[in-house]
Design brief:
- The protein has 638 residues and is an alpha+beta fold.
- The chain has five domains: 117 residues, PAS domain (Beta-Lactamase); 103 residues, Beta-Lactamase (2-Layer Sandwich), CATH 3.30.450.20; 78 residues, Signal transduction histidine kinase, dimerisation/phosphotransfer (DHp) domain (Helix Hairpins), CATH 1.10.287.130; 154 residues, Heat Shock Protein 90; 114 residues, Response regulator (Rossmann fold, 3-Layer(aba) Sandwich), CATH 3.40.50.2300.
- Helix content is 42%, strand content 24%.
- It has 20 helices and 24 strands.
- The strands form five sheets. Strands 1, 2, 3, 4, 5, 6 and 7 form a seven-stranded antiparallel sheet that branches. The protein has a five-stranded antiparallel sheet with strand order 9-8-12-11-10, sandwiched between helices. A five-stranded mixed sheet has the order 14-16-17-19-18, covered by helices on one side.
- It comes from Paludisphaera mucosa.
- Its EC number is 2.7.13.3.
- It holds the Pfam family PAS_4.
Length: 638
């Protein structure tokens, strides 16, 4: 009755393995009734095979009969029922002993484990699937127990961080790599963030490892199961070191590209402004050149059409004055170029600013009288000594006074006030003229800037005078400023230069050109490919009592020199074919010309050009257009 009531199947046999009893559960599982099974050999009623090989399995009852010991079924055993069904079973068999110790039978207990076996198979399949996924994930992955000991890791983790499974599995995560994984940010994630949140993505960490260097990692942690009491933590580690490096490089490249674009835009604006300034400058230059050219042309026409002495003198004066204008324009341009290239050298000495102011006033007297202005020069100090280049200081004052005269209506008033203020000698040029618009004041000293460039009010000039003033003042260690109350309110320009601490008398007398000595008559050869220039110079020399000849090329000059035996030669540098430097060397090679005085006449007056002239054998160097008085002065020194 007991055996019939239990939930497991029970089957008994005699010592020979013949079935003697089956309970109802055994009947339902085998498909045999107890009455039918009684007297049958066990192998007929209880047919078992291996699940994988399908071969008959060894009967546990036979093992008990043979050994007298309790035996169980092997794993993966299937029971083949009477109707051919297959059941996964689990069983055990035990001997039954008689009073005399003899084997009287065997009892076997077995049960249907098909559902359990299916669940185990599903679990094994899921585990294998999970392990396959973990092993094939390209990112390093750690599986941690709840106590933060490493349960397992995938191949990517071992390869990325150069460690072995024996150094990883079962270890406390912070002890990995001899403590290299004891990272504060990782502790924060595992001990503070994950306990509160089942999933956390992209926790970025930067850390230095001994074997693999500095790594930038994105940590993605998930606890499993996500709800309730959890047993595992899945920790994915994305190595984004290279990505972050590329991000930084890309960001740097974008910044560089943006900077380049901004620079290109700024350059384009500057080029456009420069092009505008260039066009304006060329227009002004053309205007400034045409005015004196027109005056010279008219003077030539008057001289050719009129025979009166008065008209000839007028033509001469106009021509001389306009040539001076040409020289002034060219000198201003050259000075700007030299200052820009840093080639201006000041010849500073202890001078009296009062004397320079007098020279400057005398220089602008013609334009002041022409416009009927009143020019007042006043001194507020008696000791006006300073270390300066007197020629350049005079140039500063002449520029400022000329501007004041040009931009002041006829009959206006101009003041030049010179005095000492603090440690500076100060020059103030005031006028009651056109004034300066507020928006133009900050740009007054920029190159090519004029107060008014309109055609109907153009006062001439290239807009470089104030640039020269500022540059020369700064070269002296000083500065210049401009103020005005606006259009029609006049203006004031103030130049400040450091005063000299010396109190000795300044020997700053004006440098006057030496008197030309014409006591001696010279044979002079003029060589210039410009026929008018050469013939004009020869005519002036003849009018001064000298014997002059002309050549328009180097070859003809050598021919003339052999017969003429010149004592002085004026040689143009820019000759076609053989230039002036080469011609001078050729002359120095002639026995008849070794003692001749060679004077270079060039459009270049910078130190390099003068040095080259000296190397070629020239004794003197004049800059075009050369003053005839300067030529006479050189002849006077021969």
């Amino acid at each position: 009755m007991t055996l019939s009531a239990i939930g497991d199947a029970v089957l008994t046999t005699d010592p020979d393995g013949v079935v003697t009893y089956m309970n109802p559960v055994a009947e339902s599982l085998t498909g045999w009734s107890a009455a039918e099974a009684a007297g049958q050999r066990l192998e007929v009623v209880f047919r078992i095979v291996n699940e994988e090989t399908r071969k008959p399995s060894e009967q546990p009852v036979r093992k008990v009969i043979d050994t007298g010991l309790v035996r169980g079924l092997a794993n993966h055993t299937l029971l083949i029922t009477r109707d051919g069904r297959e059941l996964a079973i689990d069983d055990s068999a035990a001997p039954v002993w008689g009073e005399g110790g003899e084997l009287v039978g065997v009892v076997m207990v077995f049960r249907d484990v098909t559902e359990r076996r299916l669940n185990e198979h599903l679990v094994d399949t899921a585990r294998n699937f999970a392990e396959s996924i973990i092993s094939t994930v390209r990112e390093p992955l750690l599986v941690l127990n709840a106590d933060l000991h490493v349960k397992s890791a995938n191949r990517s983790f071992y390869e990325t961080f150069r460690v072995a499974p024996s150094e990883t599995e079962g270890r406390f995560i912070y002890d990995l790599g001899d403590g290299q994984w004891d990272i504060p940010a990782l502790r924060t994630l595992l001990e503070e963030v994950i306990p509160r949140d089942s999933t956390f993505n992209d926790f970025e960490v930067e850390h230095d490892f001994e074997d693999v260097g500095r790594k930038t990692m994105l940590l993605n942690a998930r606890r499993f199961p996500p709800e309730g009491k959890w047993d595992l933590i899945l920790l994915a580690i994305a190595d984004v070191t290279e990505r972050r490096r590329l991000d930084r490089e890309r960001e740097a490249m974008l910044l560089e590209a943006e900077a380049a674009r901004t620079k290109a835009e700024a350059t384009a604006v500057k080029l456009a402004e420069a092009d505008l300034h260039k066009n304006q400058f060329l227009a002004m230059l053309a205007h400034e050149l045409r005015n004196p050219l027109a005056a010279v042309r008219n003077a030539v026409e008057v001289a050719s059409r009129s025979g009166s002495r008065e008209d000839l003198e007028w033509s001469r004066d106009v021509t001389a004055r306009q040539v001076g204008n040409f020289s002034h324009l060219i000198n201003d341009l050259l000075d700007v170029a030299r200052i820009t290239e840093g080639k201006i050298l000041l010849r500073k000495e202890l001078i009296d600013a009062a004397q320079v102011a007098l020279y400057a006033v005398a220089a602008v007297k013609p334009i002041v009288e022409e416009r009927k202005h009143e020019l007042l020069l006043s001194f507020t100090s008696t000791d006006l000594k300073l270390e300066a280049d007197s020629t350049r200081l005079e140039q500063i004052l002449v520029n400022l006074l000329t501007n004041a005269a040009k931009y002041t209506p006829a009959g206006g008033h101009i003041q030049l006030i010179v005095g000492v203020e603090g440690g500076d000698v100060v020059f103030r040029v005031r006028d009651d003229g056109l004034g300066i618009a507020p928006e133009l004041l900050p740009r007054m000293f920029d190159l090519f800037t004029q107060a008014d460039r309109s055609l109907d009010r153009s006062e001439g000039g290239l807009g470089i005078g104030l640039t020269l003033v500022r540059s020369l003042a700064e070269l002296h260690g000083g500065n210049v400023t401009a103020t005005s109350d606006g259009p029609g309110e006049g203006s004031e320009f103030v130049v400040r230069l450091p005063a000299s601490e010396a109190r000795t008398e300044a020997a700053s007398e004006a440098n006057e050109e030496p008197e030309a000595s014409t006591a001696r008559r010279f044979r002079v050869l003029v060589v210039d490919d410009n026929v008018d220039t050469a013939d004009g110079m020869a005519m002036l020399l003849k009018l001064s009592g000298h014997d002059a000849r002309v050549a328009h090329s180097a070859e003809s000059a050598l021919d003339v020199a052999r017969d003429f035996l010149p004592e002085v030669m004026l040689l143009d540098i820019g000759l076609p074919g053989m230039n002036g430097y080469e011609l001078a060397s050729a002359f120095r090679g002639l026995e008849s010309s070794k003692g001749s005085v060679l004077i270079a006449v060039s459009g270049y007056g910078e130190p390099q050009a003068r040095d080259r002239s000296k190397e070629a054998g020239f004794d003197h160097h004049l800059v075009k257009p050369a003053s005839f008085d300067a030529v006479l002065a050189l002849l006077g020194d021969v």
